[in-house]
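Example record used in the benchmark description.
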Amino acid sequence: MHARPTARDARAPSKMIHAESAMSEVTRDKLMSDLRTVVSDAEALVRATAGTAGDKLGEVRAKAEDSLRTARLALRDAEAAMVDRTREAARATDEFVHDRPWTAVGVAAGVGLIIGLLIGRR
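Model output (structure tokens):
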């Protein structure tokens, strides 16, 4: 005889994935934006010092260009990983909704009710 999973068992993985995904998405977006800004500013600095002579400055510029190249690659890899994880979370959510449509409707109605109550308090 098979034991039937409880509603709590069925919701737990999906709720954890959704909560982790929502919080980490905001953090990742902010981090990616900050990294793009740093890389852009560093590239502008390297371009601004391109006409300046000096052995020491040339060495620093070469190191900065290498670091920027590495940062751009890491940023590209991080963005690709973030897109993959977002797709996986969307797939898991879609699968959950298809497997448990009435649970999804109930959760959506509950969230809508809470949002409505919060808006109505203002």
